[in-house]
Structure formats: C-alpha cells, structure tokens
Amino acid sequence: MADTTIAKVRKTDAEWKEQLTPEQYRITRQHGTERAFTGPYWDSFETGLYRCVGCNAPLFRSDTKFDAGCGWPSYFEAVSPDAVTELRDTTYGMVRTEIRCGTCDAHLGHVFPDGPPPTGLRYCINGHAMVFEPEK
C-alpha cells in the first residue's frame, strides 16, 4: 500500500512575507479575515479548482461552491479529508471551528454546520487565502 502522507510545507516568517502579498500574509499567517463582499471569489462561479495561496495544494472544487449570502466564498466539501485541518477557535468570545490548509497550515477561514446537502457544512473561506485554477 502506498504512503499517502502529505509532506508539510514549512517556511520562515521572512519567507512567507517574501512570497505573499501583505493581505495574503495577514490572513493566512496571522489568522486575519477580509471584510465581507470585498475579497476575490465570493461572487465567482467559474468552473475549476481553488488552491492554497501558500503552497498551491488543492482545497475546493467549484462544483462544491454555493452562494451562502455571507460575502465569502463558501463550499460544502473540501477536495479530500486531508486537504484541510480543523482547530477549535475561541477568539472574540465565540466558539468556532477554524480551517487551515492541511499542507502548510495557512489560516483559510471557518466551517459551520449550516450548509446545504449533502454535507450540511459551510466552509466559509477568505478569498485572499486561495488562488483559482480555471478548468481547461
């Protein structure tokens, strides 16, 4: 049986700052968020694949994207169970589930249990944490 362990991407803070724009760095490395209805992809429904801005790992397919009306790109399922990791987030007096890239630990957003079938999940993701690869 083949080893399917994902190799983690590790970089220094200086390397991340060199690679990412200031907004991408603030969101993915400092656990920030973009204001609703301002980031890329919240109102885009092209066919393709959304990848992590930090390591280019595949995160979400366009056929799992839906309009949640929240102002951030929303998906009901990640491309695979190991594409993202979940962590308990208790900042700002709330209890939420933070989503990070499974490969480079970039902060992506949060997941909520109020999405559509078949999963009932709403992955609410910062557009600046992703790059879009259109289907060829």
Automatic annotation (TrEMBL):
Zn(2+) binds at C52, C55, C101, C104. Binds 1 zinc ion per subunit. The zinc ion is important for the structural integrity of the protein. Residues 13-135 form the MsrB domain. Keywords: Metal-binding, Oxidoreductase, Zinc. The keyword Oxidoreductase applies. GO terms for biological process: protein repair; response to oxidative stress. It is an enzyme of class 1 (oxidoreductase). Its EC number is 1.8.4.12. InterPro entries: Met_Sox_Rdtase_MsrB, Met_Sox_Rdtase_MsrB_dom, Mss4-like_sf. It catalyses: L-methionyl-[protein] + [thioredoxin]-disulfide + H2O = L-methionyl-(R)-S-oxide-[protein] + [thioredoxin]-dithiol. GO terms for molecular function: peptide-methionine (R)-S-oxide reductase activity; zinc ion binding. Its cofactor is Zn(2+). It holds the Pfam family SelR. The active site is at C124. GO terms for cellular component: cytoplasm. PANTHER family: METHIONINE SULFOXIDE REDUCTASE, METHIONINE-R-SULFOXIDE REDUCTASE B1. Belongs to the MsrB Met sulfoxide reductase family. This is Peptide methionine sulfoxide reductase MsrB. It comes from Rhizobium altiplani.
